[in-house]
């Protein structure tokens, strides 16, 4: 039982399991969640809503925040809105400028943040064991990419990307859609021809995960030897179901999180720590 082990015993067993998983392609599936980005100073969605500061390692100078020239620069401004106001298609259609500004502020925080030791440990592992790691992330920032991981399965999209809200009626007739690179600057940028707006390339409330991404993640979970969930509360579905899927198919489930998560019952091994503190040692082999 996971609970009967000392932390040292659990870590030793986890290292052994990870080492065994390096024996074949796809042996190790790692799922990362908001806790991992938070360790780099990127607040979780709700913390950002409540005005948590971004990127303590590289704080945004007060004058720069003030210079943003939008109400979001004021701490606590966003807390007046419901999450669905800021992260749904309906919310965007109702107040496109507000939602765009919210995402611009969060993008600003992502640009200021740096990958932490946990991100670097995952990238180093991928380089040392080509093909073994399948990395699945619930995070919309680009810290795994900047650390050097390639092919990460991004369940909730990419906050640094934008895409069109609608299909451009004019260009669609010719079999083409208007290129987001043609968007005229604005809040949000738009298509000069048809008025179409750019929206953030993330999955919003009420939207389905990209089918290719969730299918690939489920395949990885059910065929891995070890599923390691890092910094995830286990509260967001269907990502939370990956641990139970791995377990049902005979995989060893290791959960690395500083506090209890909703998927702890699926764990063979529980590691109460953070990505930056523990992943470098856990993935060193
Ligand atoms: Zn257009």
Jot down its keywords:
285 residues; Rossmann fold; two-stranded antiparallel ribbon; alpha/beta; 8 strands; single chain; 6-stranded parallel beta sheet
Describe this structure in words.
There is one protein chain. The chain is α/β, with parallel strands linked by helices and 285 residues long. It folds into 3 domains: 2-40 and 114-156 and 207-282, TPP-binding domain (Rossmann fold, 3-Layer(aba) Sandwich), CATH 3.40.50.1220; 45-112, no CATH class; 161-202, no CATH class. Helices cover 38% and strands 13% of the residues. The strands form 2 sheets. It has a 6-stranded parallel beta sheet, with helices on both faces. Strands 4-5 form a two-stranded antiparallel ribbon. Strand 6, helix 12 and strand 7 (252-256) form a beta-alpha-beta unit. Helix 8 (117-128) packs parallel to helix 13 (275-282) and helix 11 runs parallel beside helix 12. The model is unreliable at 54-72 (pLDDT under 50).
């Amino acid at each position: 039982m996971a609970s009967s082990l000392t932390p040292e015993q659990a870590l030793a067993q986890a290292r052994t399991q990870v080492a065994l998983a390096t024996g074949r392609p796809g042996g190790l599936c790692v799922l990362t969640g908001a806790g991992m980005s938070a360790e780099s100073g990127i607040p979780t969605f709700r913390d950002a809503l409540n005005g948590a500061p971004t990127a303590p390692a590289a704080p945004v100078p007060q004058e720069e925040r003030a210079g943003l020239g939008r109400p979001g620069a004021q701490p606590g401004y966003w807390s007046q809105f419901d999450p669905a106001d800021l992260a749904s298609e309906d919310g965007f259609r109702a107040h496109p400028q507000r939602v765009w500004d919210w995402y611009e502020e969060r993008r600003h925080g992502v640009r200021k943040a740096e990958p932490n030791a946990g991100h670097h440990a995952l990238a180093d592992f991928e380089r040392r064991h080509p093909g073994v790691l399948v990395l699945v992330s619930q995070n919309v920032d680009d810290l795994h990419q900047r650390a050097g991981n390639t092919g990460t399965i991004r369940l909730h999209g990419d906050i640094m990307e934008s895409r069109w809200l609608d299909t451009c009626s004019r260009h669609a007739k010719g079999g083409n859609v208007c290129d987001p690179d043609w968007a005229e600057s604005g809040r949000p940028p738009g298509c000069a021809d048809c008025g179409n707006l750019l929206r953030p390339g993330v999955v919003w409330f009420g939207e389905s995960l990209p089918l290719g991404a969730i299918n690939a993640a489920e395949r990885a979970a059910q065929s891995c030897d070890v599923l390691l969930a890092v910094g995830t509360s286990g509260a967001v579905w269907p990502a939370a179901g990956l641990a139970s899927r791995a377990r049902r198919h005979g995989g060893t489930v290791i959960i690395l999180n500083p506090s209890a998560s909703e998927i702890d019952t699926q764990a063979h091994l529980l590691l109460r720590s953070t990505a930056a503190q523990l992943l470098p040692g856990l993935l060193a082999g």
